[in-house]
Amino acid sequence: MQYDKKLIIISFAQEYNIRLMQEDISFAEFISLLPGLSSKTALGRVVAIRSEKDRKRLLKMDSQSLEIRREWQRFLAKNKGDYDISNWQKDIEHIQAALAAAF
């Protein structure tokens, strides 16, 4: 989640009109809203690009979309085997700390 921090912040503003760094939102509310972000948000568009499997669509992607995919694949390759549940928990703790500091 740390990797997509900026996209998450932008997407919450787009989807819910919530300014994560300025508004009081509980961690429980944050976690409940995160999966509801639509494909029209910044994060939704990037996730769709990263996860596309259709060969025809991949061949039609513009250079910016292809770069997003390559960057994500490099990130995954670099962190392969390093990312387990303890890392996810650390990411959650970082987000909690950032939200706590912001409020």
The SS-based structural class is mainly alpha
Q: How many E-type strands?
A: 0
How many distinct domains? 1
Helicity, in percent? 55-70%
- Major sheet, described briefly? none
Radius of gyration: 15 Å
- Quaternary status: single chain
| Count of separate DSSP helical elements | 6
Q: What would you say about this model in short?
A:
The chain contains six helices and no strands. It has one domain. The chain has helices at 5-16, 27-33, 42-51, 55-60, 63-79, 85-102.
Q: Mind explaining what this structure looks like?
A:
The chain has helices at residues 5-16, 27-33, 42-51, 55-60, 63-79, 85-102. The radius of gyration is 15 Å and the shape is globular. The two termini are 20 Å apart. The protein has one domain. The chain is 68% helix and 0% strand. With 103 residues, the chain is an all-alpha fold.
Topology (SSEs and partners):
Layout lengths: L4 H12 L10 H7 L8 H10 L3 H6 L2 H17 L5 H18 L1
Helix pairs in contact: 3-5
